[in-house]
């Protein structure tokens, strides 16, 4: 007999694997040793020693021999499969509910697995993927931590290469784009800047050219094979020249293979990085090129040999890099290393050089898919437990015939795995049907994932199905394997406790809790989307056609456009407000010489009137006053508050220095939402310098198509080399918030799955409940119970569970959106009783229809039919 202080798990484990004729003797020795250790060391240590001694007994001379060989095991599994298929055919309705629920749920899991599988392929093709790191930066401006950026100062690369031994540095730059003229063709091109070490770091195939010098000289360019095919067809462009609008003429020094889809570096052209210093001196690109304060658009990649620790690089970044900032109290940056194959997927950092996918949406989609899958697993568990009476008798008979607990467990586990594998077939079909739609609703997913069915991916799918089957079958397997033959063969009254009624009710509540959360999520997201489109942004966005200037003379373009009767006014701006764009500007306060960064836009003197932006104080720009030298600016109300300039009227006349020029505040505008609804309104400056990207046309006609045709005719007369690129501002703002529509589609799709699976499970439970209570219904009808009372009696239990789900799910969803998701927006809608009540009504109606269809049918049954054999 086991001593009460001996650890039970270790004792049972030893009894399980020890040969029967050795157990009594060896266990006695272990107990004697345990008691001696207890007296010497105390109970806790004695238990640890006992467990350790038991594990040491795990050796061939002590282990029991297996009762059967491989042939027996194969036959046993075969019998499991045969019995499982027989049970599935016998219970067609419940098998259909389980297979359909699991396949629908698994399709969402398959989509997520396919997406993760594709994302994990990013940058794996590089030969030195484990030794290449990108330097990322985080800036602190006036004690305020700014967002982390993928870029870093251009000056960092040469310094770290010089001061840290045995490392190599490659530098890249983005924002290479424009209309390229080559071989008498004009084609828009996008690419990157790179130094001469590019091919030493990255495994891209150079089809033509010498890796050592193709990117060495300024104004050298490499063209991708696809771009060469579009421009030079089958010719060899090496040695030819190509003109990129606004940048200059470049010599083609080589041809590079198109980058793989799973690369964070995407390009049609690569220009030598040494070109950028010349462009900066010419004023074509930002004059802050090379300054340590400029963290944008340039990227430092470091090669650290495999036999060298990266700690020396990290130490330099932590200790030496900050010393390059002259005024760290005003602005400084810190730096970290990010391995190249951890960029996609990766953390949420800005200023990415290529496509990016952060962890958050992957985690969210994975959690949602897991929740949907659990809902389908709940269906299987629920229906399996509900059918316990019939299956328990089967188990009892098998146990009387010698079946062990392990064989019963294996039977129900194999049955669940077979069901899951059958569901996988339909799930893969749904995966193929939903694949394109899934890619479309995820932002930029078409650039990063393909979701192609490969042997490796199918292997992952099969493992996923087996794992699903194991999880789904775990609870029924444990439940039925633990039944004794006597209890299993008793009447249904005894099995009422065995069937896990409370457990099954909790599963139904969990299913409908998920359902109400997803239904409310769709409703709330739609309300936020409507709010985003209709919110007052402080400027007019209706009937404004934004036309990309594309390097044309603004005055000539305006002169021709104003001849159209459909155009009432034309203004110009450097970007489109309200769609997430803004530019940074460094100001120097002339009062105390403090340097600060603000947001700004460049516009002409007609912009305020055209966009109906109100002046709080002062005046608008005067035509021509900033043509020779910039001397005046407009600011917003927040600028006045942040700089302590008093009232808007008192701020007029204050002088700041902008790019070595003194400028005076001549007007203060009311705050406008120049960025987006997620951002706070910050200090904002309006400049009048003549550097415009867009013409803003005020349309005074209801004939939109006719107006667009007229504008296009004018455009073709002004610029025959470029196609017109124009869009209405309200549509551009709508497109910017399209991600909310994507969220609605995701929540809607997942919500449809959740509600479908939940209602199917409820349908199955309602059918089974009414079938098992038919005699009770017949007796009640015989004693005069009405159909209405019977429907109420059969339905009330289900409605209580749905109401509990609503009581649990509603506050969870409210908190999630009110305190987490919508809290990310400065300007947001409020969740009201309308959204909550509407969601609840939708769910209740679906549940009502599901339950009443079955209970009404049962209540109308003739009692004579049910009781005739009693």
What can be said about this structure in brief?
51% of the residues lie in helices and 16% in strands. With 870 residues, it is an alpha+beta fold.
Task: Write a structural description.
The chain is an alpha+beta fold and 870 residues long. The protein is 51% helix and 16% strand. The strands form three sheets. A six-stranded mixed beta barrel has the order 3-4-9-6-8-7. Strands 14-15-20-17-19-18 form a six-stranded mixed β-barrel. A four-stranded antiparallel β-sheet has the order 13-21-12-22. Strand 14 (583-589) and strand 15 (595-602) form a beta hairpin. Helix 11 runs antiparallel to helix 18, helix 25 packs parallel to helix 28 (833-859) and helix 27 (787-821) packs antiparallel against helix 28. The longest helix is centred in the middle third of the chain and has 37 residues, at 405-441. The two termini are 52 Å apart. Mean pLDDT is 84; it is low at 491-500.
